[in-house]
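I am still getting used to backbone structure tokens and would like to learn alongside you. To get us started, please write out a protein record for me. Once you have written the record down, we can walk along the chain together.
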Amino acid sequence: MTIAKVETLAKLYLEGKPAEIPDRTISELCDWLWNEFQTTPLNLEFSWFDRYNNVAEMFANIQSY
């Protein structure tokens, strides 16, 4: 990548406005992600109510199910 391209990308990143994503699109994306998560071959269960301080705590909770 040339310096000019990097400078252009940096300018777009720093000065650009964030994308506006409609609520319907966000909802569709969340539904799709949830479906993908549910169809993974792993049978993970974790608490929807606990807050974890780190990955190890969450993994320990998953193993306890």
User: Anything to note?
Assistant: Helices lie at 3-15, 23-38, 55-63.
